[in-house]
Amino acid sequence: MKVLVATEKPFAAVAVDSIRKVIEDAGYELELLEKYPSREELLAAVADADALIVRSDKADAEVIAAAKKLKVIVRAGAGYDNIDLAAATAAGICVENTPGQNSNAVAELVFGMAVMAARNMYDGTSGSELKEKKIGIHAFGQVGRNVARIAKGFGMEVCALDPFCPDESMKAAGVNPVHSVNELYSENSIVSIHIPATAETKGSIGYDLITSLPKGGILINTARKEVIDEEGLKKALEDRQDIRYLSDIKPDNAAELSSLFGSRVFFTPKKMGAQTSEANINAGIAAARQVVAFLKDGVDKYRVNK
Ligand SMILES: NC(=O)c1ccc[n+]([C@@H]2O[C@H](COP(=O)([O-])OP(=O)(O)OC[C@H]3O[C@@H](n4cnc5c(N)ncnc54)[C@H](O)[C@@H]3O)[C@@H](O)[C@H]2O)c1
Known about the structure:
By secondary structure, this protein is α/β, with parallel strands linked by helices. The chain has 12 helices and 12 strands. The protein has helices spanning 13-25, 39-46, 61-66, 85-90, 103-118, 142-153, 167-172, 181-187, 207-211, 230-239, 254-261, 277-297, and strands spanning 2-7, 29-34, 51-54, 72-75, 94-97, 134-138, 157-161, 176-177, 190-193, 218-221, 244-247, 265-267.
């Protein structure tokens, strides 16, 4: 059986070595298609593949139609909006992601940005400490849980909002459950966003919520740019000179915000929450293990197209 690893942006060499070992130890053949110059290479390589591992590569209806033997696609990472789930389901292909493999990386970046904001972007002036400050975690999933763990280490008071997570689960992690988004934003001087972009959440964080932050509020977004109402964010930053916004997912109006608000806003040049060698290796190995578990034993624990 052939496992195709198709990555326009390749895994680190050490991750590829580990993926190869997992695949070959299981008795399968690994084909590596890295930095492919056009879709034709992908369409040709996938034609006789039994399994496909991708990163941000598009596995759309055309790719799926070209993959006559394909049984499973694993997206090495959390999001899977690069895969056409409906086409895969119609073709009887299992689609999986590798949740949690990059969540510590994202959570650490949250605190990189939180400390930077609390220390006035390292401009030489006197800042503030995170200890004993309140942080509100907007969604208590894989990343949110890691943010909570690190926040406890900083000695912060931690609360979280997640309608799909039982209070007991938060309490067991030393986190106070909050049940309204208004309370989350108005009671916490730092709010860290970790909701997925869904029909319900898109554009859901706007002027009213952002201006309800306490004085000196810091809003950090490492989730998806789509969850922010960008005009609302701009107006909130205009009306509340004390608020800061930091993100590794640039909003469409990033240049305008930077020119209007200077160091009160901060955007990494590229999305980089999950850009660590550890996350890269973890996700790649997890994807390879999941492929083997599926092909050998039909294990589909992380299936996303049930
Ligand atoms: N910046 C990056 O590089 C990077 C990397 C990984 C993930 N992400 C993004 O971070 C976010 C979180 O990722 P994750 O791995 O923790 O996902 P996850 O699926 O583990 O957690 C998402 C959580 O959101 C909760 N949720 C859903 N709708 C909600 C709502 N309306 N209000 C409150 N909570 C809600 C769910 O119950 C779940 O617990 C996603 O948007 C993901 O795309 C970004």
